[in-house]
Amino acid sequence: MAQEPGHDRRPGNRPSAEDVSAFLRDNSDFLLQHPEVLEHLMPPRADRGRNVVDFQHFQTERLRAEVERLREQQRALIAASRAHMNGQNRLHAAILFLLDARTFEHFIQTVTVDLAVLLDLDVVGLVVESNGHDIPHVHTTGVRVVESGSVDRWLGRKDMRVEGDITGNPEVFGGGAGLVRAQALIRLTVSSETPQGLLALGSRDPERFHTGLGGELLTFLAQVVERCIRSWLDLPA
């Protein structure tokens, strides 16, 4: 077995240039077996005469920069994938808590209190539009009643609005509005017999909804909430 350059030298002494040169001559396939070493080598510039550009050296440096750029993209992709998986796991746990509710009041408490903990948020609220007369259970603690048309005013024609770097709306988040710097508002259409509503998620992190809980996960959570309310209040679709 060929010795590594300077293998017989005392610990702490670096091999000489002659040692390295001799090792590479004796192990001509070393760089093939360890291509990562090439990333730390500076290729020589070819002397092609005065005012002649060494394009080979330029191309090598450009390839190095491209490799580093691809590595950065890979690291970013891995981080995003981990954040998405973490958000997905949190969502699954949250849905199980919703399904375990024993009463409607317990369900509302789970949505407005427990979801904030389960999803690593600061404020979670349920908002229901008033239709001019009493709505069964609408005054349960944790449910905010707003004027008719408010949901369309906040969402327009969309079913979800996600934004950061904001100040929370007290109509939506109540006393917790001061904590909110990012929000996700998802339309709730529980039944043809009930007014529109919102599932409001708020965070003090201005970039909270750019990672972790993606739009498809938020939409699915809102659909589960819709179906649970419909079931508890025995309402038609």
What structural class do the secondary elements suggest? alpha+beta
**Spans of at least 5 consecutive residues with low confidence:** 134-139
Strand content: 5-15%
- CATH-defined fold name of the largest domain: Beta-Lactamase
- Described by the principal axes of the CA atoms, the overall outline is elongated
Number of strand elements: 5
Q: If you compute it from the alpha carbons, what radius of gyration comes out, rounded to the nearest whole angstrom?
A: 30 Å
Distance between the amino and carboxyl termini: 76 Å
Order of strands across the biggest sheet? 2-1-5-4-3
Task: Compute the average pLDDT.
Answer: 82
- CATH arch. level architecture of the largest domain: 2-Layer Sandwich
Number of helices: 7
Order of helices and strands: HHHHEEHEHEEH
CATH superfamily of the largest domain: GAF domain
Question: What is the top-level CATH class of the largest domain?
Answer: Alpha Beta
Helix content: 40-55%
Outline the structure in words.
With 237 residues, the protein is of the alpha+beta class. The chain has 2 domains: 51 residues, no CATH class; 147 residues, Beta-Lactamase (2-Layer Sandwich). Helix content is 43%, strand content 13%. The chain contains 7 helices and 5 strands. It has a 5-stranded mixed β-sheet with strand order 2-1-5-4-3. The chain is elongated, with a radius of gyration of 30 Å. About 3% of the residues have low confidence.
